[in-house]
Amino acid sequence: IYMKVLYENVQVATFVERPNRFVVHLELQGQIIVAHLPNPGRMWELLFVGVKMYVVHHPKEGAKTQYRVIGIERDGVPIMLDTNYCNDMAEYMIEEQLIPGWEEWRVVRREYTVGHSRFDLLLTNDKEERFLLEVKSCTLFGDQGAMFPDAVTERGRKHLLHLQELQQEGYRTGILFLVQWERALWFSPDFHTDLEFTKTFIEVAPQLDWKAMALQWTSDFNRPKVVRECLYNDGAVRREAEDRGDYLMVLQVEEPVTVTIGSKGDMHFTPGYYIYVGSAKANLEKRIERHKRKRKQKHWHLDYLRSVSTVVAALPIRSSSDLECELAKAMKEISVDEVKGFGCSDCHCTSHLFKMDANPIHDERFMIEVVEHFRMNRLNEAILDFQK
Predict the structure, then answer these.
(1) 3-class DSSP state of 89
(2) How many angstroms separate the CA atoms of 318 and 131, rounded?
(3) In sequence order, which residues have a C-beta less than 8 Å from that of residue 304 and are 6 or more positions away?
(4) How far apart are alpha carbons 86 and 248 in whole angstroms?
(5) Residue ranges in 45-153 assigned as alpha helix (H)
(6) Does the bond joining 149 to the residue before it have cis omega, within 30 degrees of 0?
(7) What's the first-to-final CA gap in the chain, in angstroms?
């Protein structure tokens, strides 16, 4: 199979903002354009102001967007974002026998329905066995690792369970994760973002024929080069994927305000974004949910600040190690200020509350040096030490 040319005339624009999941505003040749983003993923780790994006002119009568985003650049590397062509990529890789261990299979049908689920591809081999395959695009990665999903997916979890059921009914079933990052060496379900999906994945993965393949793209996004199969370390994932660890609460204070913080007395907060570093040795999810609520009995320093602020984001960092003070140190380095003595009465840190002037979710240092580092990059050694 010769994979058809996916795009004509790819143009380079720069990212300005993302008003909703499927729309971005970009600057193209000095003009601000509105473009369709065919990827509903959160993509916080990719979408920074001024980053290079690849678009094609996609005019449709009466449509709000006349352009479609197909890719983005990270560290000088083009990343495919257009999920419309995932099945084309997968079919090309299977037919060209580019996936180790799957050389005997060929694609018979796309969008194949069994029961209440529709699967991306139906494969067969010379023995006429049937292989149901789900194809997922993975755009969440660190310097050496990749994780899926980047947002909670109950539908994805149910798909895993259905694949397991069909396996027991005599089908061969599997998943192909298309990791759109040529530097990815390892893959893991994203237990920070979706613990339920991860627990289900840990349970069913041994029964499925699944692979995570790292792909390399050129800026014309013609066809991918298959770089490697990513390593999966089941032991490391099981160790980390528990409901415990640390978290970052991002809060916004809109007006200057003075708050009485328990026995600490009055503290003054100027408008801006405040990032609180906390930890929970168990029930991390419940702790975060409690912090999100405004009405509650005040117990922690954060409870008092929460009553005069809005939650922008809550970022769990699940871990078998206690990273709280390391996180505070990393936050101190990138923040404009710290609130002395806040939230750190049981350690030697000067503060666990830090201030930034702009929303940290759109700040590259916050998302890469803190969130990505603690969620993914610090795991590189532990995961790669393990041999399959």
Answers:
(1) helix
(2) 34
(3) 259, 260, 261, 262, 298
(4) 33
(5) 86-95
(6) yes
(7) 32
Quote the pLDDT of residue 264.
84
User: Closest Cα to residue 137, out of 192, 214, 73, 68?
Assistant: 214
DSSP three-state, residue 343: coil
What are the DSSP E strand ranges found in 245-346? 245-253, 257-261, 265-269, 272-280, 310-318, 337-338
Q: Is the pLDDT of residue 36 over 50?
A: yes
d(CA 7, CA 20) in angstroms, rounded, equals 24
Instruction: Tell me phi and psi for residue 61, to 5 degrees.
Output: -60, 130
For 328, counting Cβ atoms within 10 Å of its Cβ (0-12 exposed, 13-18 middle, 19+ buried), the class is buried
Dist CA 366 CA 359 (whole Å): 10
Contact by Cβ (8 Å): 173, 208? yes
pTM score of the predicted model: 0.94
Name the one residue in this structure whose structure tokens are 């923040």: 335
Q: Exposure of 71 by Cβ count < 10 A (0-12 exposed, 13-18 middle, 19+ buried)?
A: buried
Q: How many CB atoms lie within 10 A of CB 154?
A: 10
Per-residue pLDDT reduced to its tens digit, 72-92: 999 999 999 999 999 999 999
Mode of pairing for the β-strands spanning 272-280 and 11-20: unpaired
Distances (CA, A) of 200 to 195, 204, 293, 359: 9, 6, 28, 33
